[in-house]
Write a structure and sequence with these properties.
The chain has 492 residues and is an alpha/beta fold. The chain has 17 helices and 11 strands.
């Protein structure tokens, strides 16, 4: 099979070719490996090739809905037994995982052929993918710009045609942000639907979940069926599944009432292209027969952003402490930005953390009140087109001050100050819309509905109610049929 034919099929289509005997798993793998080798010198998307393991697997009989389809997993929270899960950090670059993550087990059971792990920022803590240990991943549509984060390596590989879909996860937008940056479809499932085990019951109090970025909606729907095929016996609760498969629900659109907003929830600037993306999508939805009007949930989004960061920084502090205990890693094995965030987490008193977590309930009920009136919330996914590589680097004066404070053992004094709060809001300015769905545990998706005049992708986000994955997939498939995007390909 030639690359052009490979690229013309999505994962469901490739699986059908393998099932029909028209191509073998081994042939597909070699096309995927060759494409990765051809483009990754420009992109830096795949940080841990697994070619020998994949070739051995491709020679064995494979079963499942995706039997024989090449696949990449993210090098964060997607453990492959015997290989390190580097998490974008020097501290974990050589520590092998003892067992597969539950999602990796399900992908292997589905017949996927995993041949590499993709780049991520250190511990997935940023909406860009520029870890010091691996170097930056670049956007296939413009190599000077980010593919987003933290699933930026996966998104870059899919957009570049290396694979039709790839593993991703989302704790604050990390599926939807890269999907928007790279012109892909990205669905974040709701809380508890996809298993997080066996290493943990749920990540970030359930704010984080595994999933994928893909070129077609039907791939994401079929992959969600794989990930939710059975409950996690060690999970914290049993998430309800619809009676019909998600792949079937994606073929059943219905008229919806959709509220939309382009206002930044934290009061920061929104680029005119992000506004245009929502306005044009709203017009398309109206033509498709949906009722669309301006509306937004009544939520204190600025407080939500601070509460989100409280959870993120304390989790990061625990992660750093755990790694240092397990591996003997020293301060130089972690990035300065990680030290800054972890210090903020350590400085947060337990009662304040508990109060922040308690407010999650308030936000969830306020969003539920919105969903009593509207089926979906429509916003930009990004407040601006993908930023340039290096644009969000911590300023040199701040880094100098942070190093001095760290040496003196006073790094945590930065947290809680007005300067810190301003820095938090500024850091979220490019991606202020995505954290709501994580905090509330609601499903959300980014759909590639818009491009700037320069050809840069810019997605629109839809947030659904509890159990709304089928509704989101059906709407996405309807938009995809009206405005196809899968065959658009960057020049590399």
């Amino acid at each position: 099979m030639e690359y052009a034919e490979y690229r013309a099929h999505d994962a469901v289509g490739l699986a059908a070719l393998v099932a029909g005997g028209e191509v073998s798993a081994a042939e597909l793998l070699e096309v995927a490996v060759a494409r990765a080798e051809a483009v990754d010198g420009k992109l830096n998307a795949v940080v841990r090739p697994m070619h020998d393991l994949a070739r051995e697997r491709a020679r064995t009989p494979l079963t499942g809905p995706f039997a024989g389809v090449p696949f990449l997993i993210k090098d964060l929270s997607q453990d492959y037994a015997g290989l390190p899960t580097g998490s974008g950090s020097r501290s974990l670059a050589h520590l092998p995982a003892e067992r597969h993550s539950a999602v990796v087990e399900r992908w292997l059971e589905a017949g996927l052929v995993i041949f590499g792990k993709t780049n991520t920022p250190e511990f997935g803590a940023k909406g860009i993918t520029e870890p010091e240990v691996n170097g930056p991943t670049r956007n296939p549509w413009d190599l000077t710009r980010t593919p987003g984060g933290s699933s930026g390596g996966s998104a870059a590989a899919v957009a570049a045609g290396v694979v039709p879909m790839a593993g991703a996860n989302d704790g604050g937008g990390s599926i939807r942000i890269p999907a928007a940056c790279c012109g892909l479809f990205g669905l974040k499932p709701g809380r508890g639907l996809v298993p997080a085990g066996p290493a943990t019951a749920e990540d970030l109090h359930g704010a984080a979940t595994n999933g994928a970025v893909s070129r077609t909606v039907r791939d994401s729907a079929a992959l969600l069926d794989v990930l939710t095929a059975r409950p996690d016996p060690g999970g914290p609760y049993l998430a309800a599944r619809p009676e019909l498969p998600y792949a079937e629900l994606a073929r059943r659109p219905r008229p919806l009432r959709i509220g939309f907003t382009t206002r930044s929830p934290i009061g920061t600037e929104v680029d005119p292209h992000a506004v245009a993306a929502v306005d044009e999508t709203a017009k398309l939805l109206a033509r498709l027969g949906h009722e669309v009007e301006p509306a937004e949930p009544e939520i204190d989004h600025r407080q939500l952003a601070l509460d989100f960061l409280a959870m993120w920084t304390t989790q990061l502090a625990q992660t750093v402490d755990e790694i240092r205990h397990a591996t003997g890693a020293g301060p130089g094995d972690f990035e300065l930005d990680t030290h800054l965030l972890a210090a903020a987490g350590r400085s947060l008193p337990a009662p304040r953390y508990f109060a922040a977590h308690q407010r999650w309930n308030t936000y969830s009920r306020q969003l539920a009140a919105f969903h009593d009136r509207y089926d979906l919330l429509l916003t930009p996914t990004l407040a601006r087109p993908p930023v340039r590589i290096g644009e969000l680097d911590t300023p040199a004066p701040v880094r100098t001050l942070a190093r001095a404070l760290m040496k003196a053992g006073l790094l945590g004094t930065l947290a809680g100050t007005k300067a810190w709060e301003r820095a938090v809001i500024a850091n979220l300015a490019a991606t202020p819309y995505t954290q709501l769905a994580n905090i509330t545990g609601r499903p959300a998706m980014s759909v590639p509905t818009y491009r700037t005049p320069e050809g840069l992708p810019l997605g629109t986000q839809f947030v659904g109610p509890l159990g709304g994955e089928g509704t989101l997939l059906a709407l996405a498939a309807q938009i995809e049929a009206e405005q196809p995007w899968a065959r658009l390909e960057p020049e590399l």
